[in-house]
Write a structure and sequence with these properties.
By secondary structure, the protein is an alpha+beta fold. The chain is built from 5 helices and 5 strands. The longest helix is centred in the last third of the chain and has 14 residues.
Length: 161
């Protein structure tokens, strides 16, 4: 076992891990941050997306030890301390960008990374960016609409599907 330490959502966290422990397992099993989901274990679905030092990563493909000393952000850190949703979360709620909610944490984290890189993405850019995230419920249309709304763009001309 090796001790690993990182800052998660602004809070220092550490724990003993085996060398093969994935970041998603460290976050969920040792730190109790179960908002980061395990959907496929093969890096295909994107339900496990977190930010490591400001970059979106699929935490099912990163070892916990690789995050030693890193700043990690999870879905639990996106809302304000009083529970107020951030702009992306609120837009997902307002524009029905979620149904079962399983993919939502990864979608929100991916959307946050996209909007950091590109504050006003087009519909095509959003769809391209989300290619690594799977949703079996919404058909993506309302997710794309929510991300556009979170970026401050007018979505009234986008028909509901």
């Amino acid at each position: 076992m090796t001790k690993v330490s990182m800052t998660v959502n602004g809070t220092p966290m550490s724990g003993d891990v085996e060398g093969r422990t994935l970041l998603v397992s460290f976050l969920r099993d040792q730190q109790g941050l179960t908002g980061t989901h395990v959907g496929c274990d093969t890096s295909q679905c994107g339900a496990c997306v977190v930010h490591v030092d400001g970059k979106a990563v699929k935490s099912c493909t990163m070892l916990a030890l690789e995050a030693e000393g890193a700043e990690v952000a999870t879905i639990e850190g996106q809302a304000a301390p009083n529970g107020t949703l951030n702009a992306i979360q609120a837009a997902f709620q307002e524009h029905h960008g979620l149904q079962c909610g399983f993919c939502t944490p990864g979608m929100v984290m991916s959307a946050a990374a996209l909007l950091k890189e590109n504050p006003k993405p087009s519909e095509a850019e959003i769809r391209h960016y989300l290619e690594g995230n799977l949703c079996r419920c919404t058909g993506y249309h309302n997710i794309v609409k929510a991300i556009m709304a979170a970026s401050g763009q007018d979505v009234t001309s986008i028909a509901a599907e």
